[in-house]
Amino acid sequence: MNTDTHTQNDALEGPILPTFLRYMMPSLLGLIAMTSASLVDGMFIGNYEGVTALAAVNLIIPITTLLFGVSMMISIGGSVRGGKYLGEKNTTAASAIFSKTLMFMVVYGLIVIALGLMFEAEIFAILGADKTLFPVMSEYYRIIFPFLFFQFIVIQIYFFIRLDGFPNLAALGLAIGAVVNISLDYLFIAFFGWGLTGAALATGISEVISLSVMLFYFVHPKRKIFFGLRQKNWREVFRAADNGISEFINEVSGALIAFIFNWMLIQRAGVTGVAAITLVNYLLFIGFMAYFAISDSIQVIISQNFGARNPQRIRAFLRTAGIMIGGVSAGIISLLIFGSESLIGLFIDVERDSDTLALALEFVAYIWPVFIFAGFTMLISGYLTAVHLPFQSALVASCRSLIMPAGFLILLYMLLSDYRFVAAISAAEAISFVLAITLYLFHTPAKVIREQA
Q1: Where are the domains of the chain?
Q2: Which of 76, 148, 151 is nearest to 112 (CA)?
Q3: Are 199 and 44 in contact (CB under 8 A)?
């Protein structure tokens, strides 16, 4: 039986664990597929093109992450707002916010891509790249940048498809795109030898394929949310952005921290340092995608139960998600402590790039404690977003992804002459976790629903 064709709203009425898994597993599998595609990109680039190409791609990440942050803010904020409407049985309002955020994304994508291509050299300079790296960066940038348009649309549709009760279709779109990306990476890089051009083309084409799969949603007879071209009250898009502000802060802060990291490592270790932190970022990416899948699925469920005023189910879903995060964290920490050398060896030739390997292993030793705290902090931040507390959610997000990391990085960089300043990321996560727990205790499900009365 196809679980996507149900008529009951499981988020409001279904049993806790099966409902949580029904939303979470497709999201997790889809995001794992997307993550695996990025990891395979890194493997092909590192093994076939070397650490310089790997570093060049990493230097571009801050600008793409910044632009992606706006897309996430509008998409998640809009879906949370839409979830509240669905909880209130108001499908007309849910359809309206879907339509407006989708049209916004189309206009936004066209504008930022045009500007990004016009000011390529200026952007590279701002990112701190040496001019000798400009040609290598440009080879990847000029191809990947136009394809960002499809990525923006994919992420917006993805969240609303899941909200409407079709998580399998959303995950399938990501999974097929990931398989295409991996296949084309091999064909373009390993077989044809197209280098970074091939990597960018593989990623871009995979986004087009993902979007093509997700477009089947628009002809599904069971959907509750519909697209309409004529819309009013466009201010609601900005109110939706308020709900998604924490996700924007996460993405933008990640871009800024990556910029700071790259600058510091270029000063102390050159391209080798940037390549080493790129490898560590791939390992972090695995865990963070699992956390994101859990906390993001919880947002969809909680936003509907918030609209239906059901604090008991919200608590039960949070408890289930917390247990899941604890298990994921234990597994990732064990993997990093005992298997990081083997994992890093997948991305580079360890004999040819032995200096990069040694530096990456040193970074792992300072960064693995991040996974003690990060998942729970992300869960609470997602909960605060789902119950329409954007300020509190943004406070947690800005603390864990910008204020604390930037502050500790600068402080430790000034105090220490070696690479121990990397431990700033772990210290920032610990403090942010304390803040998140404190805010949750002040805004428990029963309290926020009582305050809405």
Answers
A1: 16-452
A2: 148
A3: yes
